[in-house]
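As a representative case, the lines below give one protein's residues and fold tokens.
***
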Amino acid sequence: MKQEQIDALRQHIIPNQQLLINGQWVSAASGQTLPAISPIDGQTLCRIAAAGSEDVDQAVKTARRSFEQGVWSRMAPAERKKVLHRIADRIEAHHAELAVLGVRDNGTEIAMAWKAEPGSAAGTFRYYAECVDKVNGEIAPTPEGTLGLVHKEPVGVVAAIVPWNFPLMIAAWKIAPALAAGNSVVLKPSEDASLSLLRLAQLCLDAGLPPGVLNVVTGTGAEAGEALARHMDVDILTFTGSGAVGRMLLKASAESNLKRVYLELGGKSPNIVFSDAPDLAQAAKVSALGIYRNSGQVCVAGSRLLVQREIHDEFVERLHNIAAKLRVGDPLDVSTEIGAVSSARQLAKNLMAVQTAQIEGARLVVGGQALHPIEGGNYMAPALFDGVTPNMTLAREEVFGPVLAVLPFDDEVDAVRLANDSTYGLASAVWTGSLSRAHRMVRAIKAGVVHVNTYGGPDITVPLGGVRQSGNGHDKSMHALDKYLDLKTAWIQL
């Protein structure tokens, strides 16, 4: 990753973007478009097609036709495997292009995007390429004279709605296993970050994915997203985003064809630091990055920091020193540590959360104000709040911005009580030198992920998903394939 290469790529003119339906790039039936506005400087990068219900219907019909014709669903697993590997090859070949394009679109600092976006996406496609020919059926232990077979079959049409914070990574978590299982896909990127996914779609075609197997409809959630959620011929809907939208998608499923809906929603993840943590300096550094990276726009962000009372003041001071020194600025500068907030709308929400916390009595230790390193861009100084109580809005509601709430606790029982005092249950962490305590906390915390003496590290080999109002179903790992397969029983009288 060289600055000269990044600087050259950021100058590329981006043409206006269309929808991908049946392997062809087409305009929205209405002719309507939306601006792709860069959070770096507020400039319009290009315009993207704004799909409506007619476009979504065509994309779903195309996906259904490709599935029923078997151009992908009945392709030999070994051949599907080759195509998925070729997709990974092309992502890697266009690594720099994809990383810079994505950062121009959503503002993630390039050092993080380089690894988390094309790097992760390529690895995900390779992982599921290797899973394709390792999904076996079963022979049941039946009585003599009968044979019970359990077949695993692709479901049909998968609709995937993905967010703007890590579009390539999260889309790959959904597209790759769905394709590996033999399904056809209709992808709806966020209107705030569509460009890297449109480029990915072309790379998939170039790699030999048959036309119609992957279709992309850009546009608003209210139009394209709603149409997908209510479409009678979508079999599975997988979504990463807010709880409010997740509820609407569940309602749409209930009011249409009862399609399966898998939701990866928000969190208010507790990060718990005990006084016996093996390295408080490391705990403070990792905890700070666990909320401030990508301007806090991470679903698993450790936004509630629970610190044992005897080390509370020392730890807050460590956090203060780290947050105050973080370099916020141009996300395409390799030395930048914190990039842009994704949109002016999101920045306003973040600043309102800071104001609300102060009104409710929390103490702002550092940060919390809008910054202006580049005219027209959206930037925010990482905010650290102390004196937060469990009933405050900042302790209960997701901000999705660089705002950290610190709460003290007395002992292990108190830590568990505070950690579980939430409607969410996505991620968490425990910092302790006691192996016994670590295991007790892993069992006690109600969350889909529990880190121990680290934060934000799990790779593709383990599942990611939440409990409670953080959603259902899991992305990543072999377990993700289960979402995209049907079980069919054959009961045979011999």
